[in-house]
Amino acid sequence: MRTSGIHHITAIVNDPQVNVDFYTCVLGLRLVKKTVNFDRPEVYHLYFGNESGEPGTIITFFPWPKLPKGRVGTRQVGTTGYAVPKGALDFWKNRLRDHGVSYSLHIRFNETYITFEDPDGLKVELVEREEGSENSWKTNNIPTQYAIKGFGGAVLNSAQPNQTADILENMLGMEFVSREEDYLRFKTDAPLGNRIDIKLSPSVRGLAGAGTVHHIAWRAKDHDEQNKWRKLLKEKGYKPTEIKERNYFKSIYFSDPGGILFEIATDHPGFAVDEAPEELGEKLMLPSWLEPKREQFEATLPPIKVN
């Protein structure tokens, strides 16, 4: 079995409207689902991605308005990376500058990255890639030839880098590419979400809170494959959770030896299971077991809108 790469990345933030404004108005992603955290339904769960919310494009957020700031460090995803078309970096430098977002440039594995932080301090980077289809979602003066395609990859800040590398290669089936100074790189065959870098040098221990990644999810093509991974994880002593129904995919969770929370999520059924494709993200969607409490949620959740 081989994962295709990143299914989604989930992070924690404070203000939901600030979150929506940045990821839709600045980065040009589509809000494809407005729902609640199924485990803590007093909080939104917001999903952003390409036009249809394909696996490999989705970043999700739990907005907790009064939650203290976290600290990015070990046992976390350190940086979330997005892929943009070749020749797009100059456009994004100007766009970030026009929106008052400070950035820096750095090179890793012979690729140039624009690195910046979102309003909550989440570390984000952009890199030019040939792979991946253009994002057809049109918004906010971002031409298709410059629009974010989806994930380019992620940097993992593992407390046990070599053991995390072992899971990526020997459990999830990623290909080891090379080592460069402080990083190991792994790759999958997918066009998006296909490069994972593990940072080798230790940093401060991460603290959960606003501005940090909660977990990273890997793709399983279907429920049968997910079941096989769950069985394998149990045999290897990783104690995966039971399969959880997330409406738009099914999930299992486990912690890798480096302390990072991993999820394995199915590609299907996707985000059009409860909304028409042209209406994604427009209404608060609830799972069937929470629908009887809709009035309560709509009265207590802060109003948000896509500007």
TrEMBL record:
InterPro entries from the UniProt entry: Extradiol_RC_dioxygenase (IPR052537), Glyas_Bleomycin-R_OHBP_Dase (IPR029068), Glyas_Fos-R_dOase_dom (IPR004360), VOC_core (IPR037523)
Name of protein: Ring-cleaving dioxygenase
Superkingdom field: Bacteria
MF GO annotations: dioxygenase activity
Keyword Cell division (UniProt): no
Pfam families reported in the protein's UniProt record: Glyoxalase (PF00903)
Keyword Transcription regulation in annotation: no
Entry-linked CDD domains: PcpA_C_like (cd08347)
Domain spans labelled VOC: 5-129, 150-267
Keywords: Dioxygenase, Oxidoreductase
